[in-house]
Amino acid sequence: MKEFVDSEEWYKKMGVPYRRCYLLYGPPGTGKSSFTQALAGHMKYSICFINVSDSMTDYTFNHLLNSAPKKSVILLEDVDAMFEGRKNKEHANRLTYSGFLNSLDGVRSQEGRVIIMTTNHK
């Protein structure tokens, strides 16, 4: 992550989107979220948690990601529980699989952001 943070100019020069997503996986209780908090603290970044609720839409999810402060790590926990076969597990949840992926790395994604997702089942 330090190398990523220190290489913003290289991303601009190469025309590559300057953003990073990490997926941490493993059994429950192995320190995925604790590692994320420690990493954010070490880098002097704030940490933002997004809880995907029943009322979440593609628009609101994208808005939340793009509203995160600069120099923050956005933590999305248990992403494996959000979708099953690219369909929402909770029918009331209006966040689509496509909207989720596009928010993470689509053309409207914020530059310079760091997202860390955790899962028990990659």
Give a topology summary.
Elements: H1 2-5, H2 8-14, E1 20-25, H3 32-43, E2 46-49, H4 58-67, E3 72-76, E4 83-84, E5 87-88, H5 97-105, E6 114-119
Parallel strand pairs: 1-6, 2-3, 3-6
Antiparallel strand pairs: 4-5
Helix pairs in contact: 4-5
Q: Your description of this structure?
A:
The structure is a single chain. Helix 4 runs parallel beside helix 5. The mean pLDDT is 87. With 122 residues, this protein is of the alpha/beta class. The strands form two sheets. Strands 1-6-3-2 form a four-stranded parallel sheet, with helices on one face. A two-stranded antiparallel sheet has the order 4-5. It is globular, with a radius of gyration of 15 Å. 17% of the residues are buried. The two termini are 21 Å apart. The longest helix is centred in the first third of the chain and has 12 residues. It is built from five helices and six strands, in the order ααβαβαβββαβ.
Quaternary assembly: single chain
Unreliable spans are none
Question: Could you give the order of the helices and strands?
Answer: HHEHEHEEEHE
Distance between the termini: 21 Å
Main β-sheet, spatial strand arrangement:
1-6-3-2
